[in-house]
């Protein structure tokens, strides 16, 4: 850690030995148990975070609700100005924050920087958006009437994020929610609490410098029980949750029970279809980055390759030799391609998946295995693996958050490949590699991919912030980030105004008194 300047990064971000995991801005408090954050890079305990109790949460929600009353009245472009300043702070702290992401979560330093860049990008997007929270104007059917719609701030937005994008996913939500006039309460993953502390420190400094009230940005920490404080609380009209399908079902039901809104971004089982017209070189780059980048821990990671039988062996051989070139090790060392998994539980799930695919009749063509010895002391480093499999294997139907890639073969028309690709419960990201216009358009058509993201000649991961991000089916249906995803953070109101001295009723109804 020392040689990569982790100590300097932690102090630049205001991380202490023991951190208060509950914050409403400059007020930091917490009375719960200590969460220890371990780095999967070297197994070291980085520092501790005091978790949030129900009493702490009650203070947070009171501050947040109070802050909302004034924040919503600040003109949206002025809220955008605050987000602009927040983006500037992120530019200043890009390197230490990228390093912390890499060290606490285990993704490569390049990807850590990329994550902070996504935060900066969404801030820029949100600043522009702050002058474009547009509604429509309609023509009334009644004379002397005007009809339009407007978007108002919603209230307290709860954000539950996962370990794999420990900072960017919060920013997607919070930057939009802030310009929309909402205040946010964030529960980061208990596996990456320090990323949460660092981001909250940055946000708090901006709110403080602008003399804004406590509570616009709040942080809470702990396990699912702390998440439940938000999902069950009527004062939180929207809960945005990123994580597993299992978690999403629990969150969705709790929020729906009180008729709140939820925005869910859950698991994927993303495939790349490789047709006879694919550019093989591009396919290999897209597939390998998609499958082993972030050690296979993106919700958009490539899990399945659906390859036409006529090029199957060629693609398979090229993949095996590409996997041969991969160097696995400390993600802060930029010569490595693959870093560790988040923890030993993840390593166990990876090992189980490899066993299971073989039990079900699959064949490992790149073996995988857990790495030991120098540089691998944390026990979290594994070798990316490739298995030949069938789409209907239970393990193939399941999202394993690890670098395990399944090769599936199809024959005949691209429609057969599309059918295999859609035949899973998840619907996040998908891709086709082809230079054939007909195949590409079929894939994008209504009878094509059923996912929220469908790409042509790019892999499944690495989405830009400008598009709406999310997926269908058990991926949860939510959309975050770009396009008009902001609308879910606001409440819509339809207004009809009569500027005559008559009161005509709609639908021509006569009601004489
Ligand atoms: C996630 O894994 O939860 O598309 C988000 C990507 C990233 C975001 C992934 N921009 O890979």
Written overview of the protein:
- This protein has 513 residues and is α/β, with parallel strands linked by helices.
- The chain has 15 helices and 26 strands.
- A 7-stranded mixed beta sheet has the order 15-18-19-14-13-21-22, with helices on both faces.
- Strand 18, helix 13 and strand 19 form a beta-alpha-beta unit.
- Helix 4 packs across helix 5.
- Bound molecules: 2-aminohexanedioic acid.
- The site of 2-aminohexanedioic acid has 10 residues, from loops.
* Global mean pLDDT: 97
Tally of alpha and pi helices: 15
List ligands, each type once. 2-aminohexanedioic acid
From the spread of the alpha carbons, the general shape counts as globular
List keywords for this structure.
binds 2-aminohexanedioic acid, ALDH7A1-like, aldehyde dehydrogenase (NAD(+)), single chain, 7-stranded mixed β-sheet, 15 helices, oxidoreductase, alpha/beta, 513 residues, 5-stranded parallel β-sheet, NAD, Aldehyde_DH_dom
In short:
This is aldehyde dehydrogenase (NAD(+)). The chain is an alpha/beta fold. It has 15 helices and 26 strands.
Write the layout of secondary structure elements.
Blueprint: H1 6-12, E1 18-20, E2 22-23, E3 28-29, E4 34-38, E5 45-50, H2 54-71, H3 76-92, H4 94-105, H5 109-129, E6 137-138, E7 145-153, E8 156-160, H6 168-179, E9 183-187, H7 193-209, E10 217-219, H8 224-231, E11 238-242, H9 245-257, E12 261-265, E13 270-274, H10 280-292, E14 302-308, H11 312-324, H12 344-359, E15 363-366, E16 369-370, E17 382-383, E18 385-388, H13 394-397, E19 404-410, H14 414-422, E20 426-427, E21 429-433, H15 437-444, E22 453-456, E23 468-469, E24 472-473, E25 480-481, E26 490-498
Parallel strand pairs: 1-5, 8-9, 8-11, 9-10, 11-12, 13-14, 13-21, 14-19, 18-19, 21-22
Antiparallel strand pairs: 2-3, 4-5, 6-7, 7-26, 15-18, 16-17, 20-24, 23-25
Helix pairs in contact: 1-4, 3-5, 3-7, 4-5, 4-7, 5-6, 10-11
The chain binds 2-aminohexanedioic acid.
